[in-house]
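anyone seen this seq b4? input:
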Amino acid sequence: MSASESIIVPSHIADAIAKQANAELPNEACGYLAGTDNRIELRIPMRNVDASPEHFSFDPAEQFAALKTAREAGLSLIGTYHSHPETPARMSEEDIRLAVDTSMYYAIYSVAERKLKVFTVDAAKTVSETRVELLDAAENARR
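predicted toks r here
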């Protein structure tokens, strides 16, 4: 998969990320995004084993289960998401350092701004924002 200039996110998935982010305050919420190419089809919420408002980590067993869930749905893991409880939806230095898969999308939801942004990171650690195309339920059904 190559990173696209835009990513299609059904509004119900964006809403679910926001809801999870608010429910897990004061800590960061996190999870995987599954889909095809530049289209998100499934959100797989994960437990933040760090239980921290400043960073997150996945449990390896849950990561394997997420991969299995995506594959069973005929999808691939194409991104991760996490929340920033008090800061903007931007890649922090730690986010950039930990972004090792250049084929993945990195979504960040800012609880403070109530905004979802998506990024890619290349091998040189250059961050590029990806335009988010939100689809409502009717648009999603037509595609």
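The mean pLDDT is 93. Helices lie at 11-23, 60-72, 93-98, 137-142. kinda curious what u guys think
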